[in-house]
Amino acid sequence: MSEKTFESQSTKFTEKDKEFLTSYFRLAETIADFIGPHSEVVIHSFENYEKSVVKIVNGHHTGRTIGSPITDLGLRMLSAFEKTGEVTPKSYFTQGKDGALLKSTTCILAGEGGKPIGMFCINMNLSFPFPEIIKTLMPEMGHSNIGVSENFHASANDVIEQALNHAITDIENDASINLKGKNKAITKQLFENGIFELKEATAMVSERLGITRHAIYKYLREFKS
């Protein structure tokens, strides 16, 4: 790599570039929360290589903070991107300065016109005992109820049907709701859960509950108001 100063290699950012890079901050927090405390998630900005780290979660694994510089590997990846346009993230193993074994992946982030503006990096610290790492990925022992319900389906109609079944069961088991109010209560639960954002929902709910679409629309207008 030719000997150039960091300043001469830095990239001039537009406001859109800055907004695009910032939009990844929440994703970094989400991924770090998902993988667990043994992983570091970092966003680098190519606007200033000497202070490229603009977002970092769990930075204690590498001892870095916001304002830390880009790595030598990061510069090599940027150089390769500029030559080939390759953005596919690749996993690799490396060592932290304290000798910790890290499994990492890095993806170049492109801004306006495909210009490279930063990197999104994940570093999992494998130096901890493996059972300790696995424990952070599993629900607590003895808890049969995980706490969050999510159903995975291949079609939108399956999503609607599953939600409708749950709503009907919930309302049928609620003794405080009289027979006359059950259809409205079922429709309200579906509305609050966002099911009517799916285009076939009104038709399917209408048919299943034995009421007209007009009645469904009337309920929805009432709920929205």
Automatic annotation (TrEMBL):
<dbReference type="InterPro" id="IPR013559">
    <property type="entry name" value="YheO"/>
</dbReference>
<dbReference type="InterPro" id="IPR039446">
    <property type="entry name" value="DauR-like"/>
</dbReference>
<dbReference type="Pfam" id="PF08348">
    <property type="entry name" value="PAS_6"/>
</dbReference>
<protein>
    <submittedName>
        <fullName>YheO-like PAS domain</fullName>
    </submittedName>
</protein>
<dbReference type="InterPro" id="IPR039445">
    <property type="entry name" value="DauR-like_HTH"/>
</dbReference>
<feature type="domain" description="YheO-like">
    <location>
        <begin position="21"/>
        <end position="127"/>
    </location>
</feature>
<feature type="domain" description="Transcriptional regulator DauR-like HTH">
    <location>
        <begin position="164"/>
        <end position="221"/>
    </location>
</feature>
<dbReference type="Pfam" id="PF13309">
    <property type="entry name" value="HTH_22"/>
</dbReference>
